Amino acid sequence: MSRDTRDRYGTVSRLFHWAVALLVFCQALKLFDRIDDGEHWVGQTLVPWHVSIGVLVLLLMVPRIAWALRNRGNRPPAPPPPALGLLARAGHVALYAALLLMPLSGIAIMLGNGYGLSAFGVELVAGGAEIPWLASFGGAVHSPLAWLLVAMVLGHAGMALVHHFAKRDGVLRRML
Q1: 91: domain range?
Q2: What is the rounded average pLDDT of the residues 19-44?
């Protein structure tokens, strides 16, 4: 599988990117669960998979970050002005951090409330005693971070479209 080059993201980077993008899109549909108490197709079809998909996002993000760090020398230099390049890098770091913190805070809710953790029908952690501070941490972080992540993803996609249609600099084509 090809590594990243200065002209194009490699196969592994693109697989990680689009797999996580698809999973995050499915997770974002959970926001519709707030409509009519989840009594619609999103609430009945996707929400039961929310925890499993979150675990899968976490399992993909760990090697994705390792892969990104391994390939960071192959990325093209930041475009001028330098402040915009710094802002773009900070945005990517924030996205990666949120994509780690979202599933971790969700797991904190599950374990903190004593539910245990199962993904795709496999019990990963048995239910047990409640851990109030862990449930409190997860509950305080998960929902606000979800809204922030939605905003960051929309900003990320929006900037990709700006690069493609306004700047015409080939940034989007590198990931397609």
Answers
A1: 11-175
A2: 82
